[in-house]
Amino acid sequence: MSNIRQSQSQRGPSFRRGGRGGGPLGPVEKAKDFRGTLKQLVNYLAPFRLQIGVSLVFAVAGAVAGIIAPAVLGNAVTVAFDGSVLRMAGDGGIDFDALTAILTLLGALYVAGFIFSGLQGIIIAGVSQKVSYNLRNRFYDKINRMPLKYFDNAPHGDVLSRMTNDIDLMGDSLGQSMTALITAVITLVGAIVMMLTISVPMTGVALLILPLSLVLVGIVVKYSQKFFKAQQKYLGAVNGQIEEVFSGHLIVKAFNAEKKVMQNFHKDNDVLYNSAWKAQFMSALLFPLMFFVGNVGYIAVAVLGAYLAIQGALAVGAILAFVQYSRRISDPINMLAQISNVLQSTVAAAERVFEFLGEEEETPDTKITTSTEDITGEVGFENVRFSYTTDTPVINNFSADIRKGQRTAIVGPTGAGKTTIVKLLMRYYDIDEGHILLDGHNTKDFARDDLRSAFAMVLQEAWLFNGTVMENIRYGRLDATDEEVMEAAKAAHAHHFIMTLPGGYDMVINEEANNISQGQKQLLTIARAILSDPKILILDEATSSVDTRTEQLIQKAMDGLMQGRTSFIIAHRLSTIRHADLILVMNGGDIAEQGTHEELLARKGFYSELYHAQFEA
User: Fewer beta carbons below 10 Å: N end or C end of the chain?
Assistant: First the structure.
C-alpha cells in the first residue's frame, strides 16, 4: 500500500523437450474444467481468428508439400534405378530430362514447404506475443480493481506466478498447439493415404504399430499427470517463499532465521525436484519408446518391401517412398502426444489465469457520482460495522462526527481497529453495515478515484520506489514542477539532507530503498503528502521512525499542513496527540471514550490508564 493516495491519473511449429517450469513440455497440471476453460480460450482467441486462419492455411500447405515430396523422390529413384538397369543391359540409359524435371519439382516442394512453414511460424509468433501482451494488461488492470481482502488471503507468489509463468505458457503454447495439431493430423492422414496408393499389404504392416503407440502414449500421459500437478503446486510454493524471504531478508537475518528458512525452502524444493524429475522421466520415456516401436515397424516394412520388389510387384523407388511415409507416421503420433501434454498444461495455466480474472472485483462505482471538488472535510461515521471475515467482527458499532478542519486522534491498544477505520474511510474495504459520510454524502456515492484523491496518507512504514528522490516526492502530484517539489521538501524539513546526498534530488533510491535511512525515507513520504495538497490528511504514527529533533521539526511541518484541514492521527505514543481537537479512544472495535486530552485525563478512565501506563513505562 502506498503512503499517499493511490488514485492519481496514471518449419511448422516445434515443441521443445525442455519447457518452462521443469517439465519436458512445461509444467502440466490437469485442468479442473478442461472443456469450459478450452471454450474460454477459443472465445479469447476470436479477435485473432483471421491470423490463425491464415496460419492454418499455411500449415496445411506446408504439410501437403511435405506429404507429396517422398512420392516425388521415389519417382526420381525409380527413374534413376530403371535407367541404370537399362544401361547395364545395353538397352538404353537414364532419362536425365525426366530426372531433372522430377528433381526440380522436388526442390520446389521443399522450398514451398519451407516458405509456408516459415510464414505460419511468423504469424503464430505474432499472435502468441499479442495474446501474452493482452493477458498481462488485463491481469494488471484486474489487480488494480481487486478488493484488498483478496490479497489478504492470496499468496503473493501465486499471483505473481499466474501473471508470469502461466500467461507466458499460454502465449507460447496455445497457437503452436493448434497449428501443430492440424499439421500432425494432415501428415498422419496424408501419409496413410499415400502408403495405401503404394502398397496395401505394406500399409497393413505399418499400421500395426499405431495401436501399440497409442497405448504407450496413454500410459505415459496418465502416469505423468500427477507428477506435473505436484510440480506446478510446489513451484508456486517455492516462488512464494523466495518472494517472502527477499522482502523480509533483514528480519530473517536479525532473528538468525536463515537455517529455518533454508529448511523450509529445501523441504519444498526437494518435493519440487522429485516431482519434476519423475515428470521429466515419464515424458522423456515417451520418445525412446516411440522410437523403438517405430524401428520395429520399419524393419517389418523393409523386409516385406524387399520381398515385393523381388517379386516385381513394387518399384525400388516406391519402397523408398513407402519407408519414408512409414517413418513419418511416428512423427505426427509423437507430435500428438506432445500436443496432448502441451494442451493440458496450456488449459491448466489458462484456468488459473481466468480464475483470477473472474474473481470478484470491488463494488462498481455508482453511475452518477458526487464530485469532490468542493469537499470541506466534514466526516461522519454512523453505526459502522465491519469484519475481514464473517465470523470475526473488527468494528462493532462505530459512530463519530468529525467537523471540517478538526484534528482527530484515534488511539487504543493494538488490534482495536484504529487503522481499519481509516481504510474504511478511504473505501479500501466496504463496510458491512452503517454509513460513512463525507460532507453529508455517503462515501459510496463518490467514485473511488475521486474519493481517494481527497486524501493524503503517511503510514508508519515508509514506501519508496526505485527512482530518483525527485520522482519519489513528485509521486504525490505527478504534474508538479521541480520548484514545487523542492518547496514541499523544505516544508517537510527534508531539503537539507537531500542536498547532502550524492546527486541531491537526482540521486536514485535503490530497489530496496536501503541507501537512505529510515528517518530520511519518512521525511520524503511526508514531503510527498505535502505536495499532494490534500483535503483530508491521515497520519499513521508518521514520526515514529525519526529522532527526537527531527520529530519536532516534522511536527511543526505537520502543524502547518494540518492547519484548516481535517486530519486523522493514528497514534501509539499518546504524548504526540495532546493538542488534538478530538481524541477517539477505541477498544474492541468500539469507541470507549472521546474528548480532548485534558477531558479524558480528568475522567480517569481507559484513556487515562493508557496514558499513565505509557508515562510510567
Answer: C
The grid coordinates listed for 92 are 538404353
- Using the Cα atoms of residue 599, residue 604, residue 609 and residue 612 in order, give the sign of their dihedral: positive
- On the question of pLDDT at 90 being above 70, the answer is no
- Model confidence at 542, pLDDT cuts 50, 70, 90, reads low
Task: Specify the pTM.
Answer: 0.63
Q: Say which residue the cell 502547518 belongs to.
A: 560
**What is the per-residue pLDDT across 248-264, written as a single tens digit (0 to 9) for each?**
776 767 777 778 778 87
Q: pLDDT tens-digit profile of 311-362?
A: 777 777 888 788 888 777 767 777 777 777 777 778 888 888 888 888 888 7
What is the CA angle 299-302-306, rounded to 5?
Answer: 145
**Start-to-end CA span in the chain (Å):** 32
Per-position b or e across 224-241, b if 16+ CB within 10 A of its CB: bbebbbbbbbbbbbbbbb
543-546 CB contacts, 8 Å cutoff, 24+ apart:
543/576, 544/460, 544/572, 544/573, 545/460, 545/462, 545/518, 545/519, 545/521, 546/518, 546/519, 546/522
**Helical packing angle, 200-207 and 167-198, nearest 10°:** 150
